[in-house]
Specification:
The structure holds 2 protein chains of 2 kinds. Helix content of chain A is about 0%, strand content about 50%. Chain A is built from no helices and 11 strands. In chain A, a hairpin with a 3-residue loop joins β5 and β6. Chain A is globular, with a radius of gyration of 13 Å. Chain B is mainly beta. Chain B has no helices and 11 strands. In chain B, the strands form 2 sheets. In chain B, strands 2, 4, 5, 6, 9, 10 and 11 form a 7-stranded mixed β-sheet that branches. A 4-stranded antiparallel β-sheet of chain B has the order 1-3-8-7, with no helix packed on it. Chain B is globular, with a radius of gyration of 13 Å. The chains are: A mainly beta, B mainly beta. At the A-B interface, β5 and β10 of A face β5 and β10 of B.
């Protein structure tokens, strides 16, 4: 199975901050990497697919980059609704696998 | 607008068979998508269970393959999951999802399944 490792596991930030979450894949997955946002009691929501393509309706303050084994999700100018848990997921091959999540909290 | 809605037993006893259904609306289950099951636990996080295409083709997670069956009912526009010989480790929130190119574009709200004596 492809192992997905996110860092950090949790992160505290303030409104207006820029934050970056990292996801590492082993072995490499080209650009077959997706990001999801999950709020308590809700299903995950697709934010970004294929490393950098924003899902329809997702604000442009979200961006993704990377290839191979290292990927990043960046959120510019944090808004109150952005405080949630973020997951990466490789779409390179089955079994599909997820990172363990990064919890973004308000400082 | 695509909507998915899981239904299931809620509480189960160990060694039983878990049966979940996912009703799909807003799109035909015969469209060019894969229909997936994903579960979430506090300990293991998000775990992909498996998927089915409307033709009946399936892909399963090897870690669960010996215990699962995913099926599709085109007449009801729904698909289903059966998980045999459940244990407390199968306690989770179970989600159904619509997948395109191994990417989960739409999710159900999730259904909590607890396995306990």
């Amino acid at each position: 199975d492809i192992q997905m490792t996110q860092s950090p596991s949790s992160l505290s930030a303030s409104i207006g901050d820029r934050v970056t979450i990292t996801c590492r894949a082993s072995p490499g997955i080209s650009t077959y990497l997706n990001w999801y946002q999950q709020k308590p009691g809700k299903a995950p929501k697709l934010l970004i697919y294929s490393t950098f393509i924003l899902q329809s309706g997702v604000p442009s303050r979200f961006s993704g980059s990377g290839s191979g084994t290292e990927f990043t999700l960046t959120i510019n100018s944090l808004q109150p609704e952005d405080f949630a848990t973020y997951y990466c997921q490789q779409s390179y091959t089955t079994p599909l696998t997820f990172g363990q999540g990064t919890r973004l909290e308000i400082k | 607008q695509v909507q998915l809605q899981e239904s299931g037993p809620g509480l189960m006893k160990p060694s039983g068979t878990l049966s979940l259904s996912c009703a799909v609306s807003g799109v035909s289950i015969s469209s060019t998508h894969w229909w997936s099951w994903v579960r979430q636990t506090p300990g293991k996080g998000l775990e992909w269970i498996g998927e089915i295409y409307h033709s009946g083709s399936t892909n399963y997670n090897p870690s669960l393959q010996s215990r699962i069956t995913i099926s599709v009912d085109k007449s009801k526009n729904q698909f289903s999951l059966e998980l045999n010989f459940v244990t407390p480790a199968d306690t989770a929130v179970y989600y159904c999802a619509r997948a395109v190119a191994n990417t989960f574009h739409d999710w159900g709200q999730g259904t909590v399944v607890t396995v306990s004596t």
